[in-house]
Write the structure tokens for this entry.
Amino acid sequence: MNRIATVSHPRSSPLSRRHLLAGTAGGVAALAAPALLRAQPAPVKIGLLHPVTGFLAFSGQQCREGALMAIEAINAAGGIRSLGGAKLEPVLGDAQSKPEVGAAEVEKMNEAGVAAIIGAFSSAISLATTQSAARYGIPHIVDVGVSDQIVQRGLANTFRFCPGYGLIAQIAIDNLVALNDAAGKPARTVAIVHEESLFGTGTAQLLQKELPARGFEVVEVAKHANPTRDFTNVVLKLKALAPDIVIPANYYNEYVLLARTMRQQGVRPKAIYSVLGGAASSFKFVKEFPDDAAYIMDCNHWYDPRKAEALELRRKVEARGLFYTYEVFLAHEAVRLLADALERAGSASRERIVEALATSRWDGHFMPYGPTRFVNGQNEGARPVNTQVLNGTIEVIFPAEFASARPVFPMPRA
Amino acid sequence: MLEPSILTASLVHGLANGAVYALVALGLSLVYGVLHIINFAHGALLMAALYGVYFLVERLGLDPYAAIPILVPAAGAAGYLLHRWVVAKASRGREEAVLLVTLGIALVLENLAVALFRSDTRTIETGWAFAMVAVGPALLPAAKLAAAAGALLAVALLWALVRATDLGRAIRAVAKDREAARLVGIDVEHVFALAFAIGTATLGAAACLLLPTYYVSPQVGHGFVLIAFTIVVLGGMGSFWGAFWGGLLIGVVESLGGLFLGESLGQIGIFAIFIATLLLRPTGLFGRAV
């Protein structure tokens, strides 16, 4: 073009030549534009890494469902706008309920070229996957793992949206004290039943340290394996010790079995007050075993019931025949947190996403957290909620701002 | 600290578990008594039987106890064929080779289970799984009680089979002296396979009794095979009543250990007994010095 212009107008001024060039370029651009608009921007691959088989299979599958539903919704709404409407493409991984398998899955996801990873439900698995992901600088949002070690290793790629067990145990104890004081201090002794991995052991240690300072005597700390198919011995011991409060910290299957065995053996403390009870605030437990679940209290992850999106998602999840458990909504919101970061990063590069997450001030979520603010990878505004199973459903009893029922404590004698 | 009622409950619980352990150990002891081999595939075969029950319950909607008449003959037939076609053929009659072959079968079965069913822990839900029965001051899940009763019945039937039938006499003859048995016209290879079949059939029964209160996963056999070995060594290798009483004792030790030392450490009692038996009475409680 340049040459033709020069040859046909040998004496034309540089200005006119530039005019011509600009005009030609404009025309070419105009011709090319429709093709550009038609081309799909490359999808952004997101690793969803959960224990969908093994003893954590139920929880892992719930996480995966929640994350997939969020991806579907984001794609249906036009994808990531700052990336020209790029769609999110899930890359699924199964940690088989084992940390080492989780770490191996990260390697595969790295090969697959994921922009970020969301996972991995359990604390022990998340510790392994975040560390593996850090080697490749893959941003990793921890959806559920509550061990505080996850965010205490200085890993720049690791972000946790939900609260850790340090804060949860603290708030749980504060609320327990408030509850006990309001009822005239009927409870003094506590027994803790916890699972043997990082989450249960860590939570139990925190409680064991804090409770005596707040006027409670810890009379028993019982550790059990995963899976456990028989809680008779644990429950018989509880029967002998007759603690006022039983605090379970374990996963779904064991929680249900423990609660049922307690009822069978006639062990009825003043409260079953879970800290991160695997089933205590699960609609599945309440629906399947309403009698065993009645009056159980829990300090756990919970959505803000004042937010319409939370209730809308609940309807959608239940329409699919699934239970709306904390795994579902935490994984769902973790994906949306990532989508917000992608939107602001305007790039699918791992470094840019890490930067965007680190400076995140996202308030579009439906958790009772306020805008996100990450300090060393931990979302500082994250808070747990206290729930109690009352009249066959799960009610929020703390915090007062959005409590839907008054706590029943001590629980009535059957 | 502990009330007698709690102790009794734990004791009754241990006896109920022990009855099922005894049944599993008897199958192992019988195979040892006749074939003079340790069947390392015992745990893996129990795992296979548990998957059998699981699928009969889940796919066909059978009651786990109604699966007994299907699973016992099926497990027996599988055991017979396994011995005839795999164990006997691959070992060429050498006892140390038999040991390795059974170990190989265990590895193949476990990995096959992982490949086919993944490493999930599976359980069945039955309407009566949480029904309770009062046994004296103790409350026992009905399914545990049924399992114990079923195991005791199976032990009695096995005893009758070994004592009062021609097959039982042939088995005992082969166990005592296989050459002499051959001389009087007993088909020794057939009896070997039958003993293996009976050992496997007891696992079929044990699986049906266990699953309502237990779970199945590809690794589920490990725990049982260790307990069964301990029982067989404790009772005396190849001794029928040794395995029976050993099973009950181990059940009680496990239960009381769990009560006093906690669920994680409770199993220590079983292995302490195992080591003590080997050190102090290597022939076992009911065994004879060789």
Q: What stands out?
A: The mean pLDDT of chain B is 90. Residues 45 and 241 of chain B are 23 Å apart (CA to CA). DSSP finds eleven helices and two strands in chain B.
